[in-house]
Amino acid sequence: MTTVYPYPTLVGKIDVTVRQASIDGVPLQLSLVSQRERVVAFHQVERDDWVEGLLELEVSVPNDELADGPWAGVTCVAVLTEGATNTRVVSRLQRTRGEKHWRGEVRIRRSEHVARAVLDVSVVGSYAGVDGRIIGASDTPWVIDFLARTATRQRETEIVEEDFRDGPREWLRPFKEAPWFIDTTGDVPTILLNTSFEGFTGLLNGARGPLEKAAAGLVAAQIAGEVWAAMFHAALGDLEQDEHGTPHLPGGWRESVLRAMLPDVLPGRPIADALAEAYGRRKEGAGWAELLPRIQYAASRRAQVPKNLTSAIRAVTRAQEGPVR
C-alpha cells in the first residue's frame, strides 16, 4: 500500500536485521529468528511465564542519500505495535560516528501482547522547519509471533488476479462487473482481482504519478477494509461452543482477525467477553444492527482508510493548486 507524503522522502532501501533475541536474559536459538521470513517465534520457548523479551536490531539506511538530502536532525526509531492490545512501543536507535548502521534494542513485555506484534523501523527528520517528518520506513516489517511454533510468516490472505469474464473459474462470471471478490471459505482468505475490469489491476500494480499513487492507495484501502469486514463476519460465524454454550476462538486466521478487531468493536472488554457478546448479538439478533457500524469502523481502521483518504485529498489539492514556483 503506497503512502504519499507532501515532502521529499527516501528512495533507498531501509533494511532491518534482528541480530539477537532473548527472553529474560537467555538468548533464543537462532532457528527461532528467521531472517528470510522476518519472523521471531517466541512460542517455541515452551514457557508462558517469561516477563521480558529483548531484540537487538541493526538497521541499514541509504547514507549517501541522507547526506545529500534536504533533511536535518535525522534519527531512526523502531516501532513495535499490536492492534489486539493497542500496544505501541517506540525505541530510539543509535549510530556512532563513522558507523554505517543504526543499532538498538527493543524491549517486549509479555503482559502487553497476546498474539502477533509488528516491528517497523522509521527514519525521522526535519524538513522545511517541521520536526518529526517520517522520511523513510522499512519495506517489510518483522513479525513477532507469540503463538507460532515455527518462525514462518503465515499467509494471512491470498491475492489472485483473475479474468472474471472469460477466465477458467466459471463461478466468477456472474461477478464480471465487480472489480474484486473476497472469498473467505478456504483455509486462507482470497482476494480475487478482476483483470477484465478495465484499468483496475493496472492502477494497483503500475501507478506512477502522485495522483495515480494516491488513487491506488485509496482503492487498496477500500479493498482491505472490505476484506477485514468479510473476515470478521466469517470468523464470527464459524465459532464452536462448549456444553455451556460459551463460544471459543476458532484458531488460525479467524482467531487472529477476531483478536485484532474485537477491541475496536467492543472496546474495554476482555477478548472472551467481547467474543461472547458479539456472538450472542449475531445469533439472537438483538443489538446486532448497532454493532455493524462498529465492525465497519474497526475494518476501516485496520485498513488505514482515513490515512489513505487524507493522502488522496492532499494529492488532488496539490494538483489543483498547480506546481509551486
Specify Rg, calculated over alpha carbons.
22 Å
Instruction: Compute the average pLDDT.
Output: 85
Shape: globular
What fraction strand? 25-35%
| Tally of separate helices | 7
Number of strands: 16
What low-confidence regions span 5 or more consecutive residues with pLDDT below 50? none
Helix/sheet category? alpha+beta
CA-to-CA gap between the ends?
30 Å
Major sheet characteristics: 7 strands, mixed
Helix/strand order, N-terminal first: EEEEEHEEEEEEEEEHHEEHHHH
- How much helix, percentage-wise, in residues? 25-40%
Layout of helices and strands, plus pairs?
Elements: E1 15-23, E2 26-27, E3 33-34, E4 39-41, E5 52-60, H1 63-68, E6 72-82, E7 87-92, E8 101-109, E9 116-127, E10 130-137, E11 142-145, E12 158-162, E13 180-183, E14 190-194, H2 200-206, H3 210-236, E15 240-241, E16 247-248, H4 252-265, H5 271-284, H6 288-302, H7 305-321
Parallel strand pairs: 4-11, 12-14
Antiparallel strand pairs: 1-2, 1-5, 3-4, 5-8, 6-7, 6-9, 9-10, 9-11, 13-14, 15-16
Helix pairs in contact: 3-4, 3-6, 3-7, 4-5, 4-6
